């Protein structure tokens, strides 16, 4: 019976859900953006090979950043890290986590720009997960690791590790010096273990995927509003994986699966630590086409329907904003 239901669901996706979603996107984006967006993305990928190697021009501490990336995103990773290097004037240590599709050619293109940093390929990532999150003790996290790629921005980067990790989404560009982010980085240890504050940015609308009362009951603290994990600075050793497994199980049993699970978990972690949140007006999630055209803010995060402006305009402007 389950197999029959699954086949019916798959057929409904192919015949109804996917065409309906594409038609809705066509209406929102308009014909030019809808038909040319993939071509614009390929142009951006080609341009990533031509980016000049950045030269630090300041004396601030190097920035160590982490990206979960792969075949579909490596060039976006390149542009995000490159614009950060250019606008901050700092050396970048680029740490790469393979999402399972990262090829050697992608690594070589990224290392041309940023030689410093580690690359964890899928084999070593899997070995770390097997060791740090055995399926016998963490069945929910392990299942989510298989069917929900976003959870890997938590698990693959932090399991079995220590220290502060600054994780960035690839679909972002820097247009000005990110003063607040650099200040958090320079002060990240806070002088003591008790004074560490996570670093996050603000969302365009609250997207946790789960009800606030449920999240607050599990976290035992009020959930900060509107957190977005495009920027996510956490300390690895402070993540209690037994508790995160319990949270995942409880959320799943109470309200089902959600695409925003990772963001919900980070919001619950941050609820206990008074996070440093980048100012909304300067770190813009879901910029409008007008904001993109002006290169507004220090950083723009291109979620949802801002993708056409990202692929069609933003990266070109970022290359000129130096």
Give the termini distance in whole angstroms: 60 Å
Shape, per Cα inertia axes = globular
Report the sheet-strand fraction.
5-15%
CATH architecture of the largest domain: Alpha-Beta Complex
The number of helical runs is 13
Written description of the protein model:
With 322 residues, the chain is an alpha/beta fold. It has 2 domains: 2-36, no CATH class; 49-320, Spore Coat Polysaccharide Biosynthesis Protein SpsA, Chain A. It has helices at residues 2-29, 31-48, 74-88, 104-113, 122-132, 139-147, 152-158, 179-186, 212-219, 241-255, 261-270, 289-294, 307-320; strands at residues 63-69, 92-98, 119-120, 164-168, 172-174, 199-202, 227-235, 276-277, 283-285, 299-301. Helix 1 crosses helix 2 and helix 9 (212-219) packs antiparallel against helix 10 (241-255). The longest helix has 28 residues, at 2-29. The chain starts with a helix and ends with a helix. The model has no long low-confidence stretch (mean pLDDT 91).
């Amino acid at each position: 019976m389950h197999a029959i239901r699954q086949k019916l669901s798959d057929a409904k996706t192919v015949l109804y859900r996917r065409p309906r979603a594409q038609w809705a996107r066509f209406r929102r984006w308009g014909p030019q953006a809808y038909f040319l967006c993939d071509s614009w993305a390929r142009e951006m990928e080609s341009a990533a090979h031509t980016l000049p190697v950045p030269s630090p021009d300041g004396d601030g501490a190097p920035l160590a950043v982490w990206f979960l990336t792969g075949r579909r995103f490596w060039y976006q990773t390149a542009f995000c890290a490159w614009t950060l290097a250019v606008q901050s004037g700092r050396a970048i240590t680029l740490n790469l986590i393979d999402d399972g599709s990262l090829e050697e050619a992608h690594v070589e293109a990224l290392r041309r720009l940023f030689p410093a940093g580690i690359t964890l390929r899928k084999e070593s990532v899997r070995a770390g997960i097997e060791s740090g999150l055995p399926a016998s003790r963490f069945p929910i996290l392990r299942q989510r690791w298989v069917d929900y790629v976003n959870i890997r921005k938590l698990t693959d980067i932090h399991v079995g590790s220590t220290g502060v990790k600054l994780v960035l989404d690839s679909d972002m560009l820097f247009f000005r010096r990110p003063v607040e982010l650099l200040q958090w980085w320079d002060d990240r240890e806070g002088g003591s273990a008790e004074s560490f504050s996570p670093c996050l940015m603000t969302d365009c609308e609250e997207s946790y995927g789960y009800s606030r009362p449920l999240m607050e009951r599990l976290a035992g603290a009020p959930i900060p509003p509107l957190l977005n994990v495009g920027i996510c600075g956490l300390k690895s050793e402070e993540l209690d994986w037994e508790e995160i497994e319990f949270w995942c199980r409880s959320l799943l049993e109470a309200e089902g699966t959600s695409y925003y699970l990772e963001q919900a978990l980070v919001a619950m972690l941050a609820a206990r630590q008074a996070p440093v949140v980048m100012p909304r007006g300067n770190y813009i999630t879901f910029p409008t086409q007008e904001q993109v055209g002006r290169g507004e803010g220090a950083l723009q995060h291109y979620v949802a329907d801002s993708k056409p402006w990202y692929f069609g305009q933003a990266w070109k402007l970022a290359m000129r904003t130096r």
